[in-house]
Each structure stands twice: as structure tokens, then as C-alpha cells.
């Protein structure tokens, strides 16, 4: 698989939110629903996002094969710590899309 870059990761996340909006006929209430900041205008914002008090991409899990341990990958794959899988009630990212995000994290989150 080719090396992934931030533009592709942002596209994946933007696309799933568009699918969610279409499926739910509304814009998501991101701030109200997550009890903490979540966003991905930049890769730094994504990494630092902390919905429910859980940092999405912990720096000690970047670039070393530990992407599957990040809160981002864990919440995209299924519920964690009493919080439901994201995006809430779907549609969800495909396993391949989640795999691309994990590969990007494992590669050190390249621009």
C-alpha cells in the first residue's frame, strides 16, 4: 500500500461525516455530543482532540506500530469505556478506511 498522507486521512474523516449527515438528515452536534473538543482541520487538532476526556492520538503511540491502541482507532472500531462506536449510530468507516488511518499513525502521521 502506498504511503498515506494527511490529505487522505482528512478526506476519509470528512467523507464519513458527509455520509452521516445524509443518513441522519442533519448536521452533527459535535461539541455538545462529545463533552470535549473534537476536530480535524489539521492533523494536530485531530491528535489533540479529547472527546469524553480521551485524547484521540496519544503521542507515545505514533510511528511505532501502536496505532491500534490509540483511542481514535479503538472508537472507530467499536465502543470503548462505555462510549459508543463513532460516528454515533453510523454509518461507520469501513475496515479498509480505518486501516488506512492506522497505517498513517504507524507511519508517524506524515503531512
Descriptive report:
The protein has 111 residues and is an all-alpha fold. The chain has one domain (6-106). It has five helices and no strands. It has helices at residues 6-24, 30-34, 43-48, 71-77, 95-106. The longest helix is centred in the first third of the chain and has 19 residues, at 6-24. The model has no long low-confidence stretch (mean pLDDT 91).
Helical residues, percent: 40-55%
Number of domains: 1
Instruction: Please compute the radius of gyration using only Cα atoms.
Output: 13 Å
The fraction of residues in strands falls at under 5%
Q: Topology of this structure?
A:
Layout: H1 6-24, H2 30-34, H3 43-48, H4 71-77, H5 95-106
Give a brief description.
By secondary structure, the chain is mainly α. It has helices spanning 6-24, 30-34, 43-48, 71-77, 95-106.
Give a quick set of tags describing it.
111 residues; mainly alpha; 44% helix
